[in-house]
Amino acid sequence: VQLQASGGGLVQPGGSLRLSCAASGSISSFALMAWYRQAPGKQRESVATITPAWGSTNYADSVKGRFTISRDNAKNTVDLQMNSLKLEDTAVYSCYALSKLGFASWGQGTLVTVSS
User: Are 37 and 45 in contact (CB under 8 A)?
Assistant: First the structure.
């Protein structure tokens, strides 16, 4: 399964962006999907996770209340709505999927730059 991320760009602090991850196959086959990010000079971190089957979500403390992860099983997409963006949200955001057999898939990253 291939994952294609899109939606990154340049936004001012306080602004919003919506990232989308499109899977080449059914996301219902995955146990978990997630968005990760890696800022310059920092380790990659999990931003938000979702279970395609139940829609259960989890968020990093740093984005709670600002970011929302959602899935559309019919369109095979997982989106990340990012509001109230901060300078420290600047990073390359990548889509991740974990199959029910434990195999991991990564999409290419999309750059989000928050700058005034």
Answer: yes
Which residue is listed with tokens 């971190």? 45
Q: Would you give per-residue pLDDT tens digits along the chain (116 residues)?
A: 899 999 999 999 999 999 999 999 999 989 999 999 999 999 999 999 999 999 999 999 999 999 999 999 999 999 999 999 999 999 999 999 999 999 999 999 999 999 99
1 CB contacts (<8 Å, ≥6 apart)?
A: 23, 24, 25, 29, 30, 97, 99, 105
Closest CA to 17 of 43, 46, 2, 37: 37
Question: Beta partners for 63?
Answer: none
Instruction: Give the separation between CA 113 and CA 116, rounded to whole angstroms.
Output: 10
DSSP string, 38-53: E-TTS--EEEEEE-TT
